[in-house]
Design brief:
The complex is a heterotrimer. By secondary structure, chain B is an alpha/beta fold. Helix content of chain B is 40%, strand content 22%. Classes of the chains: A alpha+beta, B alpha/beta, C alpha+beta.
Chain lengths: 181, 128, 720
């Protein structure tokens, strides 16, 4: 692509290094607060919506809170469950079921809000039916999906119990209005 | 393609330097950094064939950037041109002492800048 | 390394005509915009500089350096465009600022007082850049005068130059990268006996700025950063090292402890002399720590060379300057916001406490404790109110600074448009929240510029109309209750209601058969489709970009209105809340949901059943003391529930500027102090919602944006 260095260092090595830089800056652009590592395992928080598991990159999770009263906001899309007060901060909560095209369900005792570090240092919540736990998955068990098949799932991870969809948080928390009224 | 990074906090100056260099030919691609910090962030992202920097900038100055580039195995070989304003001669000397490859004093003749840049680019091997 | 080194093909080309850029076109405009930006920054910096000079405070070297950089950049830009007068002037200013930053002249030198004139002359020159030759010549003449004065002032004897750089144990690789100015700062700080340390820190490349900011912040609290040197050598991939050369007032060991949290490591380059006087100035330093402890803890800290070396005179000056520091403190607005939030939260907890006091007092078994508690509560309440007022007061700034900016704008317009106008200001002492003032500048400049450019007629036209040949613009600010009102009044041609109405019909903003009052029509100038058209501004005399003005002010919870009489003039009235931070709110209930309405916009509340609801077209209205009051049901607006036409409930009479609206709600829940917080999350802007608050029960309560509701109401008039 560009001209190569004349220096004594092996060109191949140089290429590999800049490739890492590229990967690092890409992952940095994706994940806000996380410290990108070149580790081969991925940590994922597994949550549940309508009986199916979904995974969220752990480094994007700020905290998990028990369901507080959600205040509905008028004039907003149906996938926005409303806002909650979180230690002085007012945070919007996205209803994961509605966001991925499933019907809304009654909130139960196991319902949780997963608070995510969003872009520009802001935060946002995702309402899920339950939190199952954290998975550590080797990178080779993460398989890409065709983005057109799903609303918010970008990758699939292979687990002993079957496949789990990894959520693209930008799509879940994006202002995209495909399900809006 | 020749990728040139311009580090300069003045928007006017940036666009003038950019326009001067783009006039060389279509293979020149200009990337702009508005501050030394931005340059530090941009340097590892892509490989550059040449860097043009101002001296007086708000966060880190051109000499500090020069010292960074010339002291690093990765960037030392990238030709570095310091563009300074008259009155900073001592700083320019220091820049050359740090390993900068050329300097130019503002207000500069765009042709002179192009000549310097072409000279520096020519020393490097052609496209692989 | 095969890379070419130390080649010096650089030559110093003359600014040949071919090398110059034509002083017009896109680059020209870009130049003017940037030059103005630089000059405005210089104005602000000069204000600060004078404050420091007159306050006998030590002059902040970073400030002087920034001023120098501004002049330096300007000089370079002017040279590029072949603007010799501007370049010359910038060069001379740069000389003065260079001498000042390198300590060759003293901050109290009269030359420094000449800088303002220099900056305003440059501003005039930059404006003349777009203007006519004649004006430019006049400004150049002004510049010559200024330069002559500057030469005279510079000829006066100046302060002594500092001593040479003492032996400082610095790595040559660091010294090599120091600019002349940085060398001077190093020398200066060594001369003053400050310890010089090197702070090394390694960061992730992706987030180094935050990490560095944390360290810089800690260092700057009690010292100065002389140089920030990045290096890639010692860092691993994806990391970057920084070496900060720092002069500090703290004992190095103490600074090291402070930097610990930010992962910085510290080494001492030059021990410095322990200056006693520094200690009381640093409130963060624990008084319990014995003075001797630091000397050894610092490692290589030279305790033997005591303060005596500085000489008694220097010591005195130092103590004096420290004393004057304590007179006023500049505070980061973020810290004030934090205080504000705390006070706000206390206010909402107080409300919760009120409830408990009432419960206790109501129960005969606990009535006695209740009464006791009520007394304490009352005292607490009073203190809290005072605290709140105190914190609010700190955030308040007078509008005068906005007015100064307006007069600069008009000064420029005079040159650009070759038109004169008398500008009057009243109420510069009126205070507003700093954040509001910052956001207010742009819309206000816009309004004044419109008045000058479009509303005021030519002298000939004014003579025909029997008006004084020079037009007048009056900007008046005053407080009205919890609001500040700013009026911009001109005696120009006024707006042509018929023409505006016609244009609005042509553009389909209103329909031809709609009956609109004169005020309704004037309000249309704030509509996007209408106000951006130039033809309207020419025929009607006003209205460029007024939609932007309205939306900017609405974002501040403000409202803008227009009054105009054809041939006589126009008044634009801006109404703003005094602060955005803590407000008193009326809590209302609709279909089980709670909402907060800023009390400053609530005129009164009424019981719906006491009034007969009339219908006209699709609107409901009641008669309020003989005038019609349009009603809107909040439940409908927010699609909360099918409100139908319930006969029970309350009407909250909202007033913004001169507009009124009756908002129908189910119940009133009393008043509370609330802190309006922004809503975080994917949906950024919600029409009709200004933010949310927490009322002490950990449930978010939405705050209604009254100005948006009122504006919507007047816009919806055409809806059938």
């Amino acid at each position: 692509m560009t001209s190569e260095s004349t220096s004594a260092s092996a060109p191949a090595l140089r290429g590999a290094v800049s490739g890492d830089w590229l990967a690092l800056s890409r992952s940095a652009a994706r994940s806000f607060h996380s410290v990108p590592t070149v580790e081969e395992r991925r940590e994922l928080l597994v949550v549940e919506a309508a009986g199916s598991p979904y995974a969220i990159a752990v480094e994007r999770v700020r905290e998990i809170v028990r369901l507080a009263a959600i205040t509905r906001i008028p004039r907003t899309p149906a996938w926005l469950a409303g806002v909650v007060a979180l230690r002085g901060e007012i945070v919007e909560v996205v209803d994961l079921r509605r966001r991925i095209g499933l019907p809304q369900a009654a909130v139960t005792r196991s319902s949780r809000i997963v608070v995510i570090h969003g872009d520009e240092a802001g935060i946002a919540g995702i309402l899920v039916d339950a939190v199952r736990g954290v998975l550590r998955i080797p990178e080779q068990d993460v398989l890409p999906t065709d983005g057109r098949d799903f609303r918010a799932v970008v990758e699939m991870v292979r687990t002993p119990d079957g496949f789990v969809g990894v959520l693209d948080l930008e799509r879940v928390l994006g202002a995209g209005d495909e399900d809006g009224r | 393609m020749k990728r040139i990074l311009i580090v300069e906090d003045s928007a006017t100056m940036r666009s003038l330097i950019g326009a001067s260099l783009e006039a060389i030919d279509a293979s020149v691609k200009i990337v702009e950094a508005r501050s030394g910090f931005e340059a530090l962030r941009l340097l590892p992202r892509e490989s550059y064939d040449l860097v043009v920097t101002d001296i007086n900038m708000p966060d880190i100055n051109g000499l500090e950037l020069a010292s960074f580039m010339k002291g690093s195995a990765k960037y030392a070989s990238i030709p570095l041109v310091i563009v300074s304003t008259e009155g900073s001669e001592r700083d320019v000397e220091k820049g050359l002492g740090l390993g900068a490859d050329a300097y130019l004093v503002k207000p500069f003749d765009p042709e002179a800048l192009r000549q310097i840049v072409l000279d520096l680019l020519a020393v490097r091997p052609r496209e692989c | 390394m095969a890379a070419p080194r130390n080649r010096k093909p650089g030559r110093k080309p003359e600014a040949t005509p071919g090398g110059r850029r034509a002083a017009s076109g896109k680059d020209g405009r870009e130049f003017v915009a940037e030059a103005e930006e630089i000059l405005e920054l210089m104005c602000t910096d000069l204000c600060l500089l004078h404050e420091q000079r007159h306050g006998e405070r030590e002059i902040d070297p970073d400030l002087v350096h920034r001023l120098f950089r501004s002049a330096h950049t300007l000089k370079g830009l002017a040279g590029l465009f072949g603007l010799d007068a501007l370049r010359h002037l910038a060069h001379r200013l740069e000389d003065v600022l260079d001498a000042l930053r390198l300590g060759r002249i003293d901050g109290r030198s009269p030359v420094v007082g000449l800088l303002d004139e220099g900056v305003s002359t440059m501003l005039a020159l930059v404006s003349g850049f777009e203007g006519e030759d004649a004006t430019r010549d006049a400004v150049v003449a002004r510049a010559e005068n200024f330069l002559a004065e500057l030469e005279r002032a510079l000829a006066e004897p100046t302060g002594a130059s500092p001593d040479g750089l003492a032996a400082v144990a610095l790595d040559p690789s660091i010294v090599r990268a120091l600019t002349e100015y940085e060398e001077h700062r190093l020398r200066e700080n060594v001369g003053r006996g400050r310890p010089i340390v090197l702070v090394d820190a390694t960061f992730e490349l992706t987030s180094f700025e935050e990490g560095l900011a944390e360290i810089s912040g800690a260092v700057r609290e009690s010292g100065e950063i002389i140089s920030t040197l990045p290096s890639a050598a010692a860092a691993g991939d994806g990391k970057i090292c920084f070496s900060l050369l720092v002069a500090t007032d703290l004992e190095p060991s103490l600074l090291a402890r402070r930097l610990d949290r930010a992962n910085g490591s510290l080494s001492i380059v030059h021990p410095g002399r322990p200056a006693r006087a520094t200690r009381p100035a640093d409130p963060a330093q624990s008084p319990a720590e014995p003075a001797g402890a630091h000397a050894s803890a610092g490692g290589g800290f030279d305790a033997s060379s005591s303060g005596a070396a500085t000489g008694p005179g220097a010591e005195d000056r130092r103590i004096e300057s420290l004393r004057s520091i304590s007179g006023s403190v500049r505070v980061d607005i973020a810290k004030l916001d934090l205080l504000m939030n705390l006070v706000g939260e206390m206010a909402s907890q107080r409300t919760a406490l009120t409830g408990i006091v009432m419960q206790l007092s109501a129960d005969p078994r606990t009535a006695r404790i209740g009464t006791e508690l009520a007394k304490i509560h009352k005292l607490l309440d009073r203190r809290l109110k005072a605290l709140q007022a105190g914190v609010l007061d700190v955030r308040m700034v007078p509008l005068r600074q906005v007015f100064e900016k307006l007069s600069r704008v008009v000064r420029r317009l005079r040159i650009d448009l070759e038109k004169d106008a008398q500008l009057e200001f009243t109420g510069g002492d009126t205070e507003l929240d700093k954040l509001i003032v910052e956001q207010l500048v742009d819309p206000l400049v816009h309004v004044v510029r419109n008045a000058f450019d479009h509303a005021l007629e030519s002298p000939e036209a004014r003579a025909v109309a029997g008006k004084p040949s020079i037009g007048r613009i009056r900007v008046a600010a005053f407080q009205r209750g919890n609001h500040v009102v700013i009026e911009v009044e001109d005696d120009g041609r006024g707006m042509d209601v018929e023409s505006i109405h016609r244009k609005a019909i042509e553009r389909g903003i209103v329909s031809a058969d709609e009956a609109l009052s004169e005020r309704d029509v004037l309000g249309l100038v704030f509509e996007a489709g209408l106000s951006t058209r130039d033809e309207v501004s020419q025929t009607s005399g006003r209205g460029v970009g007024m939609d932007v003005v309205r939306s900017n002010l609405a974002a501040l919870g403000g409202l803008v209105e227009v009054h105009s009489r054809k041939g006589l003039g126009t008044t634009i009235t801006i109404t703003l809340p005094i602060t955005l931070a803590i407000i008193q709110a009326l809590i209302v209930r609709v279909a089980g949901e709670r909402y907060a309405i800023p009390l400053s916009s609530v005129k009164e509340t009424l019981r719906l059943e006491d009034h007969r609801v009339l219908r006209s077209e699709a609107r409901e209205l009641i008669s309020l003391r003989g005038t019609p009051l349009l009603l809107r049901r909040l439940a409908d607006e927010f699609e909360i529930a099918d409100a139908g036409a319930a006969e029970r409930g309350f009407v909250v009479v909202l007033g913004m500027g001169e507009q009124r609206l009756g908002l129908v709600v189910d119940a009133l829940d009393g008043q509370q102090d609330v802190v309006i917080k922004p809503i975080q999350g994917p949906v950024r802007q919600i029409r009709g919602i200004a933010g949310a608050t927490e009322l002490g029960d950990r449930i978010a309560t939405l705050v209604i944006d009254v100005s948006a509701l009122v504006a919507e109401s007047s816009r919806r008039r055409e809806a059938a």
